[in-house]
Amino acid sequence: MLTQDKKTSFWVISDTHLIADSLHDDGQAFSQMQKTSQGKDLYYQETALSAFVRMAEEKKPAAIIVTGDVTFNGERVSAERFAEIFKPLTKTKLLVLPGNHDIYDGWAREFHGKKQYYAGQISPRMWRNIFRTSYETAVSVDSSSLAYSVQLNPDYLLILADSNDYGKEESATAPATAGFLGKEQRKWIKEQLQYASQHNLRVIFCMHHNLYAHNPAVNKGYVVDDYRELRKLLAQYNVKLVFSGHIHAQNIMPPQNSCPAMEVVTASFCSNDQVYGVVKVSPKEISYTCHHFKMRDYLTDKEKLNWTLTHFHDYLENIQLGTISAELMQKDLYRNHDDLTSVRQMGRLFGEMNYHFFTGKNHINFDELQKLKKSEIYQRLISENPQYELYLQTLYDTSAHDNLHVKIKY
């Protein structure tokens, strides 16, 4: 048990995608990787995570849960560095679970000069050893996967599942996006749910892949393959809260059909707004609030001399908007090479709409949404890029739904 306190808190982060500084020299090859990293920051994550640990040491949550994709692409050195960064925690337990980029990822690389080289990958045994302090707290460890359970306090049990699809040896191919739990792990999960029921513990369930589809247009490979079986289990034992990651977006889905679980997907820590969730539990209530890490407050004096670090959210927003906008603009320039202004406007709009969705700040009133859809730039955007029309219609929400706060009563 992590704490005897019936009123306690823990934090949730996801998709940190750390690549250790020792694996690159800021050279040409690494610069190119940063440009193609889909809006992730690769340069400053050691600094950002170290500052985050300083805040945790000050505020002392009972635990920090990381819902997968700890590393950039499964580099063993990156996982070791992550564990080292979090080692100073004294009152807070680090609880990690793997993502689809962590175990036997054939994309593991290090970068020197103009070239990239194969980097050592992470086996399941290495993972357990690197993050042994997480597994040492376990009530139970699944022998068929990297899943384990931890008792948070006298009232709550955490189940940290392994939803990833990886082989039994090092890989030379891209990591699988899709994931599943499998029959053996589901059997273990049921045993944990039974244990919780027998000991009057409420369950909070965590995994990398999603329980629900958080975007109706883009969800293939994101929802765990055996979601039907998992939802049935969660319903049988009245599990009301699930945490996941994978899609890099801050999004909350209410219970679906007969499954009573609310699912909170935490946005990627290395992009967007440096999101972390604060979860407060008491015997009869759980509250969740999405926060944005104010990194500047926890930088060293030397780090505060770096303009990028002291304006980090602006930097992350520029990366995200630039990456998304550039992808569209490159395609449109072939068709509209004589109208650069319109191409830029379409790229900017496409980027902003995506950014609002990924940060969970996508609520808009109905009239504003209709005005946007009738605008000349939006109409031209969907006319020249009809493949995005359905997707763009899913990015804004005119309901009272909230992606940043949740309260669950028992």
Automatic annotation (TrEMBL):
GO terms for molecular function: hydrolase activity; metal ion binding. Signal peptide: none annotated. It holds the Pfam family Metallophos. Belongs to the cyclic nucleotide phosphodiesterase class-III family. Keywords: Hydrolase, Iron, Metal-binding. This is Metallophosphoesterase. PANTHER family: CYCLIC NUCLEOTIDE PHOSPHODIESTERASE CBUA0032-RELATED, PHOSPHOHYDROLASE. Residues 296-399 form the Cyclic nucleotide phosphodiesterase C-terminal domain. Residues 9-249 form the Calcineurin-like phosphoesterase domain. InterPro entries: Calcineurin-like_PHP (IPR004843), CNP_C (IPR040869), CNP_phosphodiesterase-III (IPR050884), Metallo-depent_PP-like (IPR029052), Pesteras_lmo2642 (IPR012365). It comes from Lactobacillus gasseri.
